[in-house]
Amino acid sequence: MREVIYSRVDEDLINSLGGWARNSEIFKSDSASRPPSDYVVIKLFEDGSSVVFNAPGELPRLSPVVVGGPPQTVDSTPGSGTKTRWRVIAHREEGVTTVVAKDLTRDSALLYGLAMVQFIISLLVLAVLALLSYYVVRQAMAPLREVERTAGEIAAGDLDRRVPAWPRTTEVGQLAYALNTMIGQLQESVETAQSKEEQMRRFVGDASHELRTPLTSVRGYTELYRSGATDDVDMVLKRIDDESRRMSLLVEDLLALTRAEGSRLELKTVDLLELSLSVASSARAAFPGRTVHVKNETSSVPVVEGDASRLHQVLLNLISNGLTHGGPEAEVTVTLQLEDEDVVLTVADDGRGMPADVAAQVFERFYREDASRSRASGGSGLGLAITKSLVDKHGGTITVDSEEGVGSTFTVRLPR
């Protein structure tokens, strides 16, 4: 801007040398033809005299001025007491040097005003840019603040929380996806650990509860023998051996139940008809003289995706339960059917049956309709609990329908 103003002033000074500055008569007039009030003309003669036209009371310092050179900026003469700046040009013609000077006070004020306007506009632009940048950065940081809040809630124990899903084409979207994946894996690990811990607590609680009775019996027979109340050593040893066997069976069943709840299934295609025939044959060998029928009412091979060894255990538990608790004359029938997307396997016996209140609790751990009779027969009360756990692991369901004097029917539904 300074160059533009000075260029205009220089143009006026050069024009004045070729125009009104040459006419001496113009300076004697009071008319509008006089030079502008901020111009000073000085004529210097060869004899050392000089004439000043339109002098405002102070003059520019002429010593730095180069005659015939371009316009220059100089200060006022020393001792004038002002700091006025002048733009000066000098030209020599016919022994007379003409100096034209312009007071730059108004031009400097204009430059100052323009600078202030530019400064204020710059401040306003900077303020607007700062506000705009703040808004843009705040909007850009909003997802990260949401991530921070979610991380705080997760740290407080809420593992169900997830970071909102943003497009994965952005860095924040990729971060959110990675965090959600990590949180999901963390939640799965925590739930698995909690499940294992709960299984262990249940195992310890169940074992301590169920082992209390046989341990008490062993201790009782030991104290009986030590006190001399009986001399029948064989009887005492037999009772201790029986209780030890029951404790061993109980621990084995507890471990089987724990494995059923916590182990992974080895899934493959299982032919339930072939499996049923195999288990029925094993049951006939284990219960000589007992009858086990297998009926296939399906129009195709009844196959499911499952763990063959676990399904073998399910079927064997149900058949053994019917032969053991149905009575010595009870027969067991295994029936295979297809319903919608499920294979339905029923194990029915025509034995004693159960009351409704007993049937509602048969899948509970350690439940026995007659505790003394069940313990005497070697049962731990865990067989059906293990069976239900294995069926649940396969994504199926198991129910029981029983009537006293008629028999019991266990129905297992497994997805194909």
How would you explain this protein's 3D organization?
Keywords: Kinase, Membrane, Phosphoprotein, Transferase, Transmembrane, Transmembrane helix, Two-component regulatory system. It comes from Corynebacterium humireducens. The chain crosses the membrane at residues 110-137. This protein is of the alpha+beta class. Among the domains are: 2-103; 264-415, Histidine kinase-like ATPase, C-terminal domain (Heat Shock Protein 90). Helices cover 50% and strands 18% of the residues. It contains nine helices and twelve strands. It has helices at 2-17, 105-155, 171-226, 233-262, 272-286, 308-325, 356-359, 371-376, 383-393; strands at 39-44, 50-53, 72-75, 85-93, 96-103, 268-271, 292-296, 303-306, 332-339, 342-349, 397-403, 407-415. The strands form three sheets. Strands 2-1-5-4-3 form a five-stranded antiparallel beta sheet. A five-stranded mixed beta sheet has the order 7-9-10-12-11, with helices on one face. A two-stranded antiparallel ribbon has the order 6-8. Strand 11 and strand 12 form a beta hairpin. The longest helix has 56 residues, at 171-226.
